[in-house]
Design brief:
Pfam families: SNO (PF01174). By secondary structure, the chain is of the alpha/beta class. The strands form 3 sheets. A 7-stranded mixed sheet has the order 2-1-3-4-12-11-10. Strands 9-6-5-13 form a 4-stranded mixed sheet. Helix 5 packs across helix 7.
Length: about 250
C-alpha cells in the first residue's frame, strides 16, 4: 500500500516517519494528480486556516472530496479532523472550506490556545482489540479541536474529559448550538466507513498502533458513497502558529 500524506503544512514529516517505522511507503501529496497514485491518504495536524488556503490555492478541494468518495481510507489528525467534518464551529472570521464526508460537528479550537495544549492517557478499547498492546493511548493535544456530536453511522473510538478551564466554554457552546448537550467528556476519535479522525497527534508518539489500525481499514465501505458537503459557522479567534515539537516516547 502506498500512503499519501498531504504535505501543505503541519506534521506531515512525522506521519511519514511513523509509516516508515511499520514498513509502509508514504509519499508527500501537494498536487491533485498525485492522489491518483496512492491507496490511502493522511491529512495531518497543523494550522487549519493556512492549510485550507494552500489547498484552495492549489485547487485540491475537488480532488480531495473525490478521493473520500472512492472508499479508500482517509485519516485526519487534529486539523485533518476539521477538514473531514461535515460541520464546524469556532471558525476564524470568514470561516474556511472543508472537505466533508464525516457526519459530525467539530469545534475547531475547543481546548483553547497553544498554551493550553496537554497530554492525557485515553481509553482505547477498540484500538487494543485490533492492534494489541495496552488499553490506553497517550493522547497529545495541541491547540486541539473536539467532536461535539456525531451521526448514527459514526463509531466513537475514544473520548476525553473536558478540562475544568474548558467546561465554561462547553456550556456556552451548548447554549448557542441547539441539540448539543453540555458534558464532562467530548469525543476525540471516530471512524465512519473509510474515514478515521483523531483530535490528537499519534504521529508525535512512538506508539504506531493508530497508523497500523488505519492501514488495515477496509477500502470498501459497504457500497455507500459519502456525500462531501460541509457547512461552517464563524467565530473570531486569535491565530497563533504551532511550535515544532519532538516525538514523545
Amino acid at each position: 500500500m502506498t500512503v499519501g500524506v498531504l504535505a501543505l503544512q503541519g506534521s506531515f514529516n512525522e506521519h511519514l516517519t511513523a509509516l516508515r517505522r511499520i514498513g509502509e511507503k508514504g509519499v508527500e501529496i501537494r498536487k491533485a494528480e498525485q492522489l491518483e497514485a496512492v491507496d490511502a491518504l493522511i491529512i495531518p495536524g497543523g494550522e487549519s486556516t493556512t492549510m485550507a488556503k494552500l489547498a484552495h490555492y492549489h485547487n485540491l478541494f475537488p480532488a480531495l472530496r473525490e478521493f473520500v468518495k472512492t472508499g479508500k481510507p482517509v485519516w485526519g489528525t487534529c486539523a485533518g479532523l476539521i477538514f473531514l467534518a461535515d460541520n464546524a464551529i469556532g471558525q476564524k472570521s470568514g470561516g474556511q472550506e472543508l472537505i466533508g464526508g464525516l457526519d459530525c460537528m467539530v469545534h475547531r479550537n475547543f481546548f483553547g490556545s497553544q498554551l493550553q495544549s496537554f497530554e492525557i492517557q485515553l481509553s482505547v478499547p477498540k484500538l487494543a482489540e485490533e492492534e494489541g498492546g495496552p488499553s490506553s493511548f497517550r493522547g497529545v493535544f495541541i491547540r486541539a479541536p473536539a467532536i461535539l456530536e456525531v451521526g448514527p453511522e459514526v463509531e466513537v473510538l475514544a473520548d476525553c474529559p473536558v478540562p475544568p478551564e474548558t467546561r465554561k466554554n462547553m456550556m456556552l457552546i451548548a447554549n448557542d448550538q441547539k441539540g448539543i448537550a453540555s458534558s464532562d467528556r467530548v469525543i476525540v476519535a471516530v471512524r465512519q466507513g473509510n474515514l478515521l479522525a483523531t483530535a490528537f497527534h499519534p504521529e508525535l508518539t512512538s506508539d504506531s498502533r493508530w497508523h497500523s489500525f488505519f492501514l488495515k481499514m477496509k477500502k470498501d465501505n459497504g457500497g455507500k458513497i459519502l456525500q462531501c458537503t460541509s457547512t461552517s459557522e464563524t467565530d473570531a479567534l486569535q491565530e497563533k502558529k504551532p511550535y515544532d515539537l519532538p516525538i514523545y516516547e
